[in-house]
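Hypothesis: this fold can be encoded by more than one sequence.
Test: take the structure tokens below, design a sequence, compare later.
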């Protein structure tokens, strides 16, 4: 089972990232030939990797090639008529390809019942809840918490010179790292993370000459760390309780 998954994943990584020049990605929106060439490379890679097992896995190879063509065609249509290329669309595209590979494993080895029981286990549900709290709930909670200061605050005009939603994404990744560090017992990493963020923020705070803005940054950083630590230790205690 593992060798099948690794071969399919290797073929995908080689075909989508190593043997697909950037200009192909742009030109295939106007010329279908580049898309067919991309699919052809995937087919060749699969044939090479499964060279001595074609009689056994021919249906798998055919299924992966056909679904890859469908997924990439839908992506090109979306980029052309609905949304331009975005990171979110890239993630959806890659997740769709990975789901195809996983579906092949599930179908081929009939592990659906085993995977379903694991995905619905107490530990898996606890991890899912922790992820949702870190990525979706905490940004909303912090935004509500800061509303009493941010409504009409003049220092928020500074955000016009920064990347869109950059602060939100920095906070999310920061809390993900905090939760991860706590799970692996790398508590010194929390200090390193706080120190690194303080260094990057030092220039802003020095040049701001605005007490309110400085206090806003400090409270935001500390609040984000507190939330991340609470989620991290709640997850750790929950996993320990479940044994």
């Amino acid at each position: 089972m593992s060798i099948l998954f690794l071969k399919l994943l290797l073929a995908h990584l080689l075909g989508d990232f190593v043997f697909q020049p950037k200009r192909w990605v742009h030109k295939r929106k106007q010329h279908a030939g580049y898309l067919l060439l991309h699919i052809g490379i995937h087919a060749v890679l699969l044939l090479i990797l499964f060279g001595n097992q074609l009689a056994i896995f021919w249906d798998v190879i055919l299924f992966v090639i056909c679904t890859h063509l469908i997924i990439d065609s839908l992506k090109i249509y979306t980029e052309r008529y609905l949304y331009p290329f975005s990171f979110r669309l890239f993630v959806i595209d890659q997740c769709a390809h990975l789901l195809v590979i996983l579906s092949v494993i599930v179908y081929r080895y009939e592990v659906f019942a085993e995977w379903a029981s694991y995905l619905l286990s107490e530990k898996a549900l606890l991890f899912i809840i922790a992820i949702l709290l870190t990525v979706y709930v905490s940004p909303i909670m912090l935004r509500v918490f800061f509303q009493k200061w941010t409504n009409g605050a003049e220092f928020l005009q500074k955000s016009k010179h920064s990347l869109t939603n950059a602060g939100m994404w920095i906070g999310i990744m920061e809390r993900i790292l905090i939760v991860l560090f706590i799970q692996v017992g790398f508590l010194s990493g929390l200090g390193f993370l706080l120190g690194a963020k303080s260094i990057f923020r030092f220039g802003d705070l020095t040049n701001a000459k605005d007490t309110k803005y400085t206090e806003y940054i400090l409270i935001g950083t500390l609040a984000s760390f507190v939330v991340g630590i609470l989620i991290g230790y709640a997850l750790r205690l929950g996993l320990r309780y479940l044994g």
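Residues 2-117 form one domain. The first helix runs from residue 2 to 18.
Hypothesis status: open.
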